[in-house]
Design goal:
By secondary structure, this protein is α+β, with helices and mostly antiparallel strands. It has 3 domains: 33-79 and 114-228, no CATH class; 232-326, no CATH class; 361-467, Immunoglobulin-like. The chain contains 16 helices and 18 strands. The strands form 6 sheets. Strands 10, 11, 12, 14 and 16 form a 5-stranded antiparallel β-sheet that branches. Strands 15-13-17-18 form a 4-stranded antiparallel β-sheet, with no helix packed on it. A 3-stranded antiparallel β-sheet has the order 5-6-7, with no helix packed on it. α1 (33-51) crosses α4 (115-131) and α4 (115-131) runs antiparallel to α6 (147-172). The longest helix has 26 residues, at 147-172.
Length: 471
């Protein structure tokens, strides 16, 4: 939010504008080591996003979130709604990872790997290839509509839309197998939800990366607002060395810096021109800064041309900036970082051990109705749900204990053959012979499922048998 502007209306009334009208930013392209790293991050993240739906694992997509079947395939694992604890642990691990990374390196996530940054970089690259440099784009904005301007703008938006729809298509491919989705698209047989999410995700990409851009980082993203709570004086940030750069001003390259009577900053303004959020880093750290280091690359190039030392704008910390002998690399290990690291290690180890020891056999037991007395004795009916979380079939035997002489009778032939990654429901009866005297009231019993083909796979679930008083 900008400071309130006061304007005099024609009627003589005072109009106060609480928001500054947006000035469209056309960032200047820049090259350098950090620009290279940013594009490497773009390629890496998009290779994962667009490539995973094509990857196969055992005849199925390697990553598939089958919401209809309530099964989630991630490489060699199949997760069910009952595995929600893993999602909770993953979210907690991601949160602590974000806190850990921010405490050490500030907003490097925003500058290199955030989807908003990544897609804005891609859209800016498309825009530059079609409309030209930042200066040419600015002139095109100011020019009246003409056949040339219409052709350039139409071409740019067409490419943006195609890319956005492909992004939406890829997103839906994580929930519908890619081959099926491609066939349904080709035959114009997409379902309403598929059409909705392709359109929604595509238009969100188109709007955020094509139009909103820095507005998302400045006004919509909560991370920019609460990041200050995770910063300290040893957090890596992008800073302008005011002591070295001021007083700033233009000068000839032929005049030595010691004789020019000014600081190292030549006041060229290129650091502002390359900034994707349009800020001037020389005014100090601002929440709009996403840590992309475009200003560092730009300033280093200017310093190199002037034969000045690089690093007038650089990654540093407040302590290192104020104390030249302070080495920020020696202060990475500090209490908050140690705590975040310990929490992440504990969560990671717990998840790894849990996954390694996870039994692929699940069983739920529900008592179907009250016990009844038959010629064979007491009979209690239960509904059993067996889940095979493995991707190969298993033969499972069932037994019951807890009451002497009790036996289990199943409507399905035993052992039960469980199909891969499937849920099977069936009815069983627990029969207590007449010769066994059971006291009235509830009795704890246990259902035991044991895989015939693998002794390591077994499951035990508790249940209750209620004997009638008159028995």
């Amino acid at each position: 939010m900008a400071d309130a502007d006061t304007a005099q209306a024609d009627s003589g009334e005072i109009v106060e504008q609480l928001f500054e009208s947006r000035q469209k930013i056309h960032p200047r392209s820049v090259s350098g080591i950090f620009a290279t790293w940013r594009w490497m991050a773009v390629f890496a993240t998009q290779l994962v996003f667009y490539g995973l739906p094509w990857l196969r694992w055992g005849g199925r997509p390697a990553v598939l979130f089958d919401l209809a079947a309530r099964k989630f395939y991630i490489f060699g694992y199949v997760f069910w709604p009952q595995d929600f604890i893993y999602l909770a642990a993953l979210l907690a691990l991601s949160a602590f990872g974000l806190f850990w990374w921010t405490a050490i390196a500030g907003r490097l996530w925003c500058g290199y790997a955030c989807p908003q940054t990544v897609y804005t970089e891609i859209f800016l690259w498309i825009e530059e290839k079609i409309e030209g440099s930042h200066t040419a784009r600015r002139k095109l904005d100011q020019a009246p509509m003409s056949p040339r301007k219409f052709a350039l703008r139409s071409s740019k938006h067409a490419v943006w839309l195609l890319f956005s729809l492909w992004t939406g298509f890829t997103f839906v491919a994580y929930f519908t197998p890619l081959t099926q989705l491609a066939h349904e698209t080709e035959s114009v047989a997409l379902g309403p939800w598929q059409l909705f999410w392709i359109g929604f995700y595509g238009l969100a990409t188109y709007g955020n990366a094509g139009f909103l851009r820095e507005q998302v980082c400045k006004y919509m993203c909560p991370y920019a607002r609460f990041q200050a709570a995770m910063f300290d004086r040893d957090t890596l940030i992008i800073s302008y060395d005011e002591a070295r750069g001021e007083p700033r001003g233009s000068r000839r390259k032929s005049i030595p810096l010691k004789e020019v009577g000014k600081g190292a900053c030549v006041d060229c303004g290129i650091c502002v021109q390359v900034c994707p959020t349009g800020i001037d880093i020389r005014n100090g750290l601002q929440y709009e800064c996403i840590g992309c280091a475009a200003c560092i690359d730009a300033c280093d190039q200017v310093m190199e041309k002037m034969d000045y030392p690089k690093g007038l704008i650089r990654y540093t910390t407040e302590n290192a900036l104020e104390n030249p002998g302070w080495k920020w690399t020696e202060h990475i290990v500090r209490p908050r970082v140690v705590i975040y690291t310990a929490l992440m290690v504990v969560l990671t180890v717990a998840m790894a051990v849990s996954l390694a020891l996870r039994d692929p056999l699940r069983m739920d037991v529900m008592r179907d109705r009250l016990v009844r007395e038959t010629d064979n004795g007491l009979e209690s009916v239960y509904q059993l749900v067996l889940i095979n979380a493995d991707e190969k079939p298993h033969s499972v035997g069932l037994t019951v204990d807890g009451i002497e002489g009790a036996r289990l009778v199943s409507d399905a032939p035993l052992p039960i053959v469980l199909t891969p990654a499937a849920t099977q429901r069936f009815t069983v009866r627990v029969i207590v012979p007449s010769k066994v005297k059971v006291a009235p009231g509830s009795h704890h019993i246990q259902f035991k499922a044991q895989a015939v083909d693998d002794t390591k796979i077994h499951r035990t679930e508790k249940a209750v048998l209620i004997a009638p008083k008159e028995y």
